[in-house]
Amino acid sequence: MAVVLGRQDLTDAVHQAVLEVHTAAWTVAVEPDGEIRDGTWVAELDGDVLKGWPKGG
After folding, report:
1. Which residues contact 47 (CB under 8 A, 6 or more apart)?
2. Beta strand 27-30 with 36-42: parallel, antiparallel or unpaired?
3. What Å distances lie between residue 35 and 13, 31, 40, 49, CA to CA?
4. Which of 4, 7, 17, 23 is the S-S candidate for 49 at Cβ 3.0 to 4.6 Å?
């Protein structure tokens, strides 16, 4: 699985958190115009793993 987080550096803590996201939590990524981004999936992370990251990124 490739993990891309835009311009943010992927820390070990974030990498581990992504690997632990349950399969059912992932959903297809959608562009602002409603088009589905082929082969791209998203899931939400929260909690301590994101301390120090900019809000809204």
Report:
1. none
2. antiparallel
3. 31, 5, 12, 30
4. 17
What percent of the chain clears pLDDT 70, i.e. is strictly above it?
A: 72
Task: Dig out the tokens for 52 from the structure.
Answer: 């120090």
φ, ψ (nearest 5 deg) of residue 27: -140, 155
Q: Which long-range contacts (CB under 8 A, 24 or more apart) does 37-46 make?
A: 43/18, 45/14, 45/17, 45/18, 45/21
For residue 50, name the pLDDT band (cuts at 50, 70, 90).
confident
Is residue 3 scored above 60 in pLDDT?
A: no
Return the CA Rg of the chain.
12
Residue-wise pLDDT for 24-36, tens only, equals: 999 999 999 999 9
